[in-house]
Amino acid sequence: MGIRTRFTDLCGIEHPIVQGGMMWVGRAELAAAVSNAGGLGILTALTQPTPDDLRREIDRCRTMTDKPFGVNLTILPSVNPPPYAEYRRAIIDSGVKIVETAGHKPQEHVDDFKAHGIIVVHKCTAVRHALSAQRMGVDAISIDGFECAGHPGEDDIPGLILIPAAADKLTIPMIASGGFGDGRGLAAALALGADGINMGTRFCATVEAPIHDNVKQFLVENDERGTNLIFRKFHNTGRVAKNSVSDQVVEISSREGAVFQDIQPLVSGAKGRVALETGDLDAGLVWAGQVQGLIHDIPTCDALVKRIVADAEAIIRGRLSAMLSGERVAA
């Protein structure tokens, strides 16, 4: 029967499950597989070296799925920023209907996307930022709890508080991100006021994820303690998998007088890409969240999405309903 929410209606998808727009991972193979499974797959714009490469990747994704998919455009302050406006134009010219924005001062991009009839989902880590994005005119919010991989912000608010706090104040659809990987999480997110879930790390441990099998197995073998928080000292906190590289970053950063340049050689995105593509887990950072503790296999995206939805439905119709009816509740 499926789970229908404001977000599934907005995006024209079957299931309220979104694949996070992950650097080096959000490619056509994964995005198409998630969309074909009834969720919303996301290409990562800046994974592609140039705007023209992004155009080709969008075209390639269309050869793999006729279902809705989106593109992530993350805007970060930089000394030498990528040509964001050109990537934005590639997205618009390619006829993409859904965009996930994230990062620093997206107003210019949101305005242009909206002017071309594109649905904009803005990803953020705080209620105040979500409200700002809503005023900006975005169509939906993706809100990241402290459990997430990537940059969880500096407030350290976990999803159990952040999701209902955002739901209390937002009037547009919201999907919950950070710590989601199974049907229990989907049911919980819906109960907390979200309209769906966003999963990044969990989709990395799937057959179609375009990363090395060593990395996928690494995620399966890790538990919920298997992450490090980095860049805290520099007010740009990131959550990554615990490996020799992130251990070094934490140790160096803890030294008195340490500056970012001391760890910069260890944290380059190019080295992280090497780790993902070669399976050398000591080559660079592997970005992963605490949800590693809930990952126990490497299914196809189709099998994973079906299982999550079926399990969530069973919880909502069975266990929770039984509590209301006075029936004996199964363990």
UniProtKB/TrEMBL annotation:
Database matches in SUPFAM superfamilies: Inosine monophosphate dehydrogenase (IMPDH) (SSF51412)
EC assignment: 1.13.12.16
Gene3D superfamilies referenced in this protein's UniProt entry, alphabetically: Aldolase class I
Domain of life: Bacteria
The keyword Flavoprotein belongs to this UniProt entry's keyword annotation: yes
Entry's Gene Ontology molecular function annotations: nitronate monooxygenase activity
InterPro entries, sorted: Aldolase_TIM, NMO
Flavoprotein is among the record's keywords: yes
Keyword set, alphabetical order: Flavoprotein, FMN, Monooxygenase, Oxidoreductase
PANTHER family from the UniProt entry: 2-NITROPROPANE DIOXYGENASE, 2-NITROPROPANE DIOXYGENASE-LIKE PROTEIN
Name of the protein in question: Nitronate monooxygenase
Source organism of the structure: Sphingobium xenophagum
